[in-house]
Design brief:
heterodimer, A: 4-stranded antiparallel β-sheet, 4 strands, globular, B: alpha/beta
Chain lengths: ~90, ~450
């Protein structure tokens, strides 16, 4: 399984999760876990997704999500899970 | 499974605290390029480096993209050129031609620096070593990304004072040859005692003869991350302080280990070492001096600084050693002056002197680094400063180095701007008393006794 972490940070507005999830569904990317908080009016979301099913490569998914983020006014980052695993798990 | 807090912590380190991987350095052995024909040698060198490193930058950028971690530099280190060029080079100009070839191929593959224009002369110099050293001013003034390092001493062999005296003059000649650009050539020239074979950091990187054909070495950074972590434990005792540094160093190093493993797998080159150094940059918040301030000294250089630096260096190693399967290189806290805004502030405030920096180098890696001194500093004075620093390394069984920049045409009170990662520096005063008779004795300082430790 190729797990990727998607983080969305920005000013809260209507439909952020809907738009991100629609893109992921259209790209056959499976969401494994999702959590979301709002701190001081700022929207903070983290998703763990599985990219094994998608035909798109990592770079184009990351680019698409970055573009999508710009259109909503939030910052969307795509990172492979290993960086978090290696930093926080022994 | 990874939770939000952990993800946010990592991304904060990257976005706000300047966590980055400073460099992926590809070490390449050039021993199999040796030829007695200079043209053939240059061709062999160009081809081997090009073939080995053509995917380095692309691979580094892709890893950076996928993990969301900046990889600031991609670099190449090669076998010391004095060994490679000895059979073909009969003049200084011949050696400088090899530097040109290194410069061309480095630019072709897109790396930031190429290191290894080096000679290892800790006990004596061959004629090739001497020619290479004499060619340094020409080589560094006619190339852009070539870095040079000379090892003039070691704990096992003592200090080659003939080489030290020669390097005093070469540093000055390099400054003179590059005076149009504020003697920038000297920023790419470092003189070592106990130089490691696998250092990924410039200007001192070279690919030692004990290494494999090719190797990936990674240098991590992250002073800003340590400083931010320490802000949360203000006023706590040394136990808490040290634990915090260790934990942070562990996390930072793990990122380096991941990047090194990935780069090694993708390039098909064995993983060498992680260099656990805290390497500052001129960016605000990316400063080792700021960590010292956070530990509790008003400015770097104040009483207590050497002790603070000693504990910082040791805790970084303790945390980092467990995070990586192989640790090497220089591994410690760097204290370059021009590359660290906090150090520059300390010099400008009158708190940090050359003598205090020398004391600080006793407890950290690497040495007197990126220090601008007046352009009229005598050759023998520079040699004397080098000899002092080499002695610290020799006696304490550690790597020490000198990267001094006598800025031609400038003096105390002036500032010199190097740009980029090299930063800017106020010119620091140098002790005016003479050491001519000491430096001009010639010969070697014998290796120290390895017993009766005091």
């Amino acid at each position: 399984m190729k797990k990727t972490i998607i983080t969305v940070v920005g000013k809260d507005t209507v439909g952020i999760i809907a738009k991100v999830c629609t893109y992921l569904a259209d790209s056959s990317i499976n969401i494994l876990d999702i959590s979301q908080t709002i701190v001081g009016g700022y929207f903070n979301m983290m998703m763990i997704v599985d990219m094994a099913g998608t035909s798109k490569d990592f770079n184009s998914v990351a680019d698409d999500l970055e573009e999508l983020g710009k259109s909503i006014g939030v910052v969307i980052k795509c990172q492979k899970e290993e960086i978090f695993d290696s930093m926080h798990r022994i | 499974m990874i939770n939000t807090k952990e993800v946010l912590e990592t991304n904060e380190m990257i976005e706000k605290e300047n966590l980055d991987v400073r460099t992926i350095t590809l070490g390449i052995s050039l021993l199999d390029c040796i030829s007695s024909d200079l043209e053939q040698l240059k061709k062999n060198i160009y081809n081997k480096i090009y073939e080995s490193a053509k995917d380095l930058v692309k691979t580094g950028d892709q890893i950076s993209r996928e993990f969301g971690i900046p990889i600031v530099n991609k670099r190449i280190s090669v076998t010391p050129i004095a060994l490679v060029g000895g059979a073909a080079c009969k003049t200084k100009e011949d050696f400088a031609q090899i530097a040109k070839t290194l410069d061309e191929v480095a630019k072709k593959v897109g790396v930031n620096f190429i290191g290894g224009y080096s000679a290892l002369v800790s006990k004596g110099m061959t004629s090739a070593d001497k020619l290479l050293i004499e060619s340094i001013p020409l080589a560094l003034s006619t190339t852009d990304v070539v870095c040079s390092s000379i090892n003039v001493g070691s704990t096992k062999t003592g200090i080659n004072m003939d080489a030290v005296r020669l390097m005093g003059s070469i540093v000055k000649a390099t400054a003179e040859a590059t005076k149009e650009s504020d003697s920038l050539g000297c920023a790419k020239l470092v003189i070592f005692c106990n130089a490691p074979d696998d250092n990924p950091f410039m200007a001192g990187a070279f690919h030692g003869v004990t290494e494999a054909d090719k190797i990936i070495n990674v240098g991590v950074s992250g002073p800003g991350v340590v400083k931010t972590a320490l802000e949360k434990v203000r006023g706590e005792n040394f136990e808490v302080l040290c634990e915090t540094i260790k934990k942070t160093a562990f996390k930072v190093t793990r990122v380096g280990q991941l990047v090194a493993k990935e780069a090694s797998a993708r390039l098909g080159v064995p993983f060498g070492i992680i260099d656990l150094s805290l390497a500052p940059t001129p960016a605000i918040g990316d400063s080792v001096a700021d960590i010292l301030h956070e530990i509790g000294v008003e400015h770097a250089g104040a009483p207590g600084t050497t002790a603070a630096l000693a504990l910082l260096n040791d805790q970084v190693k303790k945390g980092g050693v467990m995070a990586s399967s192989y640790v090497g290189g220089l591994s410690g806290a760097f204290i370059p002056v021009s590359e660290d805004q906090g150090m520059i502030n300390a010099v400008e405030a009158g708190c940090l002197t050359l003598e205090k920096l020398e004391a600080m180098t006793c407890v950290c890696s690497v040495g007197l680094d990126m220090i601008a001194v007046p352009g009229d500093t005598k050759d023998t004075t520079i040699a004397g400063i080098i000899a002092d620093e080499m002695a610290i390394g020799m006696i304490n069984q550690k790597t020490t180095a000198v990267r001094l920049i006598p800025v031609i045409g400038k003096t105390v009170g002036d500032t010199v701007e190097f740009g980029g990662l090299l930063g800017y520096a106020p010119i620091m005063p140098v002790n005016k008393f003479s050491c001519d008779e000491f430096v001009n004795r010639g010969g070697r300082i014998p290796a120290p006794v390895h017993s009766f430790k005091n």
